[in-house]
Design brief:
Elements (H helix, E strand, L loop, with lengths): L7 H9 L5 H8 L3 H6 L14 H9 L3 H6 L21 H5 L5 H23 L1 H7 L3 H7 L5 H14 L6 H9 L6
Length: 182
């Protein structure tokens, strides 16, 4: 197996960077994680991937086998080391955000991460969980999405079906003291 200046493991590593972990890459490529880990031993000679694994990785990643094996041909990476799209529509988000500078993308990533954590924490709050679990009719009343006539009709239907047993007092107080916009 011929090699360029950069060993094959370096090219495999650059492909792994597109995954959250080596395990995720191994699953995506259909190879055993222990086989992949064996290529990263710190002592002695790094084992070369078997010939049957390289085509499997190349096919999964949509890269040329000669590039993966020998480093020959065009690299599937742009200047910023992110993989080029191999199929139409693969990188829609990347294409959409390509007009941003590197620092703008970093700030956007930080904002999305922060908002994601805030949302999860909001959803884990016990009061918010209780609100989310309220009956649809009660939610509509709280949000003012029903007229008094519709609310009364829904109250009657809920009483008939018995589905409003726990929230009966709460729903009566919600419809009784509500002011209507004129």
């Amino acid at each position: 197996m011929g090699q360029s200046k950069e060993p094959v493991i370096e090219r495999i590593t650059s492909l792994i960077m597109g995954y959250p972990s080596r395990s995720a890459a191994a699953r995506a490529w259909g190879i055993n994680i222990n086989t992949l880990k064996s290529y990263y031993r710190k002592e002695g000679n790094i084992p070369e991937p078997r010939d049957n694994l390289l085509p499997q990785i190349a096919t999964s990643e949509g890269v040329r086998l000669d590039w993966l094996r020998d480093g020959k041909g065009e690299s599937p990476f742009d200047v910023d080391k992110s993989p080029k799209s191999t199929k139409p529509g693969d990188n829609k988000l990347t294409d959409m955000l390509s007009f941003l500078t590197s620092s703008e993308r970093q700030r956007l990533t930080e904002v999305l991460a922060r908002k994601g954590v805030e949302t999860v924490l909001y959803l884990l709050d016990e009061d918010n969980i209780k609100l989310l679990q309220l009956d649809r009719v009660v939610k509509a009343k709280i949000l003012g999405m029903q007229s008094n006539a519709a609310a009364s009709l829904n109250d009657e239907r809920a009483k008939e079906s018995g589905s409003d047993s726990e929230g009966g007092a709460a729903s009566a107080s919600l419809t009784g003291g509500r002011k209507q916009a004129v």
